[in-house]
Amino acid sequence: MKELAQIASAVQVSKTMAIDALAKQMRADGVDVVGFGAGEPDFNTPDHIKAAAEKAIADNVTRYTPASGTTALKEAVCRRMREDCGLDYKPTQVIVSSGAKHCVYIALRALVDPGDEVILPAPFWVSYLELIRMMGGVPVVVGAGESAGFKMTAEQLAAAVTPKTKALILNNPCNPTGMVYSQEELEAIAKVCVEKDLYVISDEIYYSLLYDGVRFASFASFGEDVKERTILVNGVSKSYAMTGWRIGYTLSSERTAKVMANFLSHSTGSPSSISQAAAVAALTGPQDCVEAMRRAFEERRDYIVDRVNAIDGVSCIKPEGAFYIMMNVEKLLGRTICGERIDSSGDFSAALLKHGLVATVPCESSGAPNFVRWSYSTSMENIKKGMDRLEKFLKGWTAV
Ligand SMILES: Cc1ncc(COP(=O)(O)O)c(C=O)c1O
């Protein structure tokens, strides 16, 4: 038989999903694993949102919708963006798709031809790298270390631009780092994007999860010339605990939105009609559920950051958003723990899972080889248990 397509065959499995699947399997086998791998809120979808979906089914809202989403949802998205970010978009500038991940895919489809370079600040969400490659694009990774707060500077961006550079993917607040770019940092980056004529995919899916009173600035808020070249990616997954409903959306120029809508019309057809009705309820209904979840995340973040920094051999900086911390394991490299030699964060995560029964995500594939991501989207009880186990594991305790 002939070979399968080269581009598709080169796509790597999502390591985040792989470790999460392994932890789930161990749990299904009766092993008491504490999971910190998940990239989704542990809260249930609020009741009023579920009720809207039930009503949609009862009302037979069960047919195809327009390929890029219902007008009702696009209007709801515009309203929320106006209220939360002070941005004015028309429904014709909104594209609804099956999750924010698919929105990044569709945005890259609209921008990238084979051979085009896309700048990706590291540490990055693993899917970006593979998605760029899926277009035949060339990822250009720009590393930002822990001492820089894991944030790329405008100068670094400018230095990475070549005549082949088409776009930048910015993720703010960031998965895996939880870091948030300030208004000034974004403004400087936006200036470079205009000067160098770059498109920007700004994934802002965690924007409602900010701590310490930090204020969010959307990338599109830095002037018309910036807004025109920006595709904002957002969705209901993280803010409303709706990961399984698969609704994400983009906001962009009408020209870009049309290209993305055409692409969708021949690929997904339309997002789920029922999930779209639920998303309307999420975006237009009471927002206190978002604040309640945010507060719970902030409390957990404070706890986990303090615990990690009190443990010998590991440390983390305090993130200002999302629900992840980046634990630095550099000091453990070269050591043997529970009979396992630790030469990388992958070795560390594997040993911690095997001996400590704690699932984390090594960030080698996220452009941060000496770091392990802990998602604190799990109960306080689990976080305490996980931290106790980490502490004991580092002293040589093993559960097996
Ligand atoms: C930065 C970022 N963008 C997008 C997504 C995907 O969101 P969705 O579930 O809406 O596809 C995730 C999920 O982990 C994420 O971390």
Structure in a nutshell:
The protein is of the alpha/beta class. The chain has helices at about 5-10, 15-30, 45-60, 70-85, 100-110, 125-135, 155-160, 185-195, 225-230, 255-265, 275-285, 290-310, 345-355, 380-395, and strands at about 35, 95, 115-120, 140-145, 165-170, 200-205, 230-235, 250, 325-330, 335, 340, 360, 360, 370-375. The protein has two domains: about 5-45 and about 290-395, Aspartate Aminotransferase, domain 1, CATH 3.90.1150; about 60-285, Aspartate Aminotransferase, domain 2.
Considering the chains and any ligands shown, give keywords for the structure:
single chain, Aspartate Aminotransferase, domain 1, Aspartate Aminotransferase, domain 2, three-stranded antiparallel sheet, binds pyridoxal-5'-phosphate
Describe the structure.
The chain has two domains: 145 residues, Aspartate Aminotransferase, domain 1, CATH 3.90.1150.10; 224 residues, 3-Layer(aba) Sandwich (Aspartate Aminotransferase, domain 2). It is built from 14 helices and 14 strands. The strands form four sheets. Strands 2-8-7-6-5-3-4 form a seven-stranded mixed β-sheet, with helices on both faces. A three-stranded antiparallel β-sheet has the order 9-14-13. Strand 13 and strand 14 form a beta hairpin. Pyridoxal-5'-phosphate (PLP) binds next to helix 5.
